[in-house]
């Protein structure tokens, strides 16, 4: 077996995670032909074919699957070495990528980033606030906030907080329709809900908890756009109270009868949870979430 270098391993990891050569090359900041040569060199060096080239992209072969585990172990070791040297020599610099649900990222974390940025101006914070789950093992984020505690993987999870959701409508909509005084009344109104195949967590399936008869008239893939549709008068919807209270044109309905509870969890990878800058951001989020009496409730 001929020797191969670390760049070949990084190229292999990038393609195995992205699934496509062009996407992996863009992530690594190299030309796709360079990436292709690195994979060819690695396959030659190992004497095996690592990927099947298909119309859907690059798919790992059985040999590639076995190599992936070793490549990720090498990556983890390299990361630990780099982080220890950085933390010891230059302190809190570099970047931390935080993946969160869009509501949490937009309405809780983003307004508070100024605090941590002012205290650590050399630290770069990347906030990815999207309606999706983040894979820490694939290095999609350094730490993540999720609506569920992960059941597997080399990760650590800490419960941040519970939060309350309720039924909301726009003030103009509510005032122009018959009074809503019972759960039976809401069945006569149009509803905004999630696109079913875009519901990235089972925790988002709110409507059956209110009534199994509720069927959305409008389906939207993310909660921020759902809130905009409710504000615009498209119908009623279930919204997190910490978001809805920021818009005075929204009215909460049947608060005594409908108060759903969900949770946020902060998740870090076993390999990076003790890296100083990752730990700093995780501790900051935990501290801020715990110092807001009434913020997460109705």
Characterization of this structure:
With 298 residues, this protein is α/β, with parallel strands linked by helices. It folds into three domains: 6-77, Arc Repressor Mutant, subunit A (Orthogonal Bundle); 89-161 and 263-290, 3-Layer(aba) Sandwich (D-Maltodextrin-Binding Protein, domain 2), CATH 3.40.190.10; 162-261, Periplasmic binding protein-like II (D-Maltodextrin-Binding Protein, domain 2, 3-Layer(aba) Sandwich), CATH 3.40.190. The protein is 40% helix and 23% strand. It has twelve helices and eleven strands. Helix 2 (21-28) packs across helix 3 (32-46). The termini are far apart. It comes from Caballeronia glathei. This is LysR family transcriptional regulator.
Number of strand segments: 11
Q: Main beta sheet: strand number and arrangement?
A: 9 strands, mixed
Give the low-confidence spans.
none
What's the domain count? 3
Structural class by secondary-structure content: alpha/beta
Please supply descriptive tags for the structure shown above.
alpha/beta, transcription, Arc Repressor Mutant, subunit A, D-Maltodextrin-Binding Protein, domain 2, 11 strands, LysR family transcriptional regulator, DNA-binding, nine-stranded mixed sheet, 3 domains, WH_DNA-bd_sf
């Amino acid at each position: 077996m001929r020797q191969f270098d670390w760049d070949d391993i990084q190229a292999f990891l990038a393609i195995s995670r992205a699934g496509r050569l062009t996407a992996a090359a863009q992530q690594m900041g190299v030309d796709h032909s360079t990436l292709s040569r690195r994979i060819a060199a690695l396959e030659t060096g190992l004497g095996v074919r690592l990927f099947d080239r298909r119309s859907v992209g690059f798919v790992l072969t059985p040999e590639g699957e076995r190599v992936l585990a070793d490549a990720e172990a090498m990556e983890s070791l390299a990361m630990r070495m780099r982080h220890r040297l950085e933390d010891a020599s230059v302190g809190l610099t570099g970047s931390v990528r935080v993946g969160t649900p869009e509501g949490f990222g937009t309405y809780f974390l983003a307004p508070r980033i100024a605090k941590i940025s002012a205290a650590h101006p050399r630290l770069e914070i990347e906030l990815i606030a999207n309606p999706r789950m983040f894979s820490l093992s694939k290095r999609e984020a350094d730490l993540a906030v999720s609506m569920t505690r992960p059941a597997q993987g080399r990760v650590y999870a800490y419960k941040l907080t519970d939060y309350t959701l309720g039924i909301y409508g726009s003030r103009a909509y509510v005032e122009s329709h018959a009074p809503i005084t019972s759960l039976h009344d809401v069945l006569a109104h149009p509803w905004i809900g999630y696109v079913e195949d875009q519901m990235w967590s089972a925790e988002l399936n709110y409507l059956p908890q209110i009534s199994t008869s509720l069927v959305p008239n409008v389906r939207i893939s993310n909660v921020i756009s759902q809130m905009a549709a409710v504000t615009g008068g498209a119908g009623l919807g279930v919204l997190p109270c910490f978001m809805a209270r920021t818009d005075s044109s929204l009215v909460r309905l049947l608060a005594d009868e409908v108060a759903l509870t969900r949770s946020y969890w902060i998740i870090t990878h076993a390999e990076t949870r003790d890296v100083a800058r990752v730990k700093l951001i995780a501790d900051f989020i935990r501290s801020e979430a715990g110092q807001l009496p009434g913020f997460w409730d109705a």
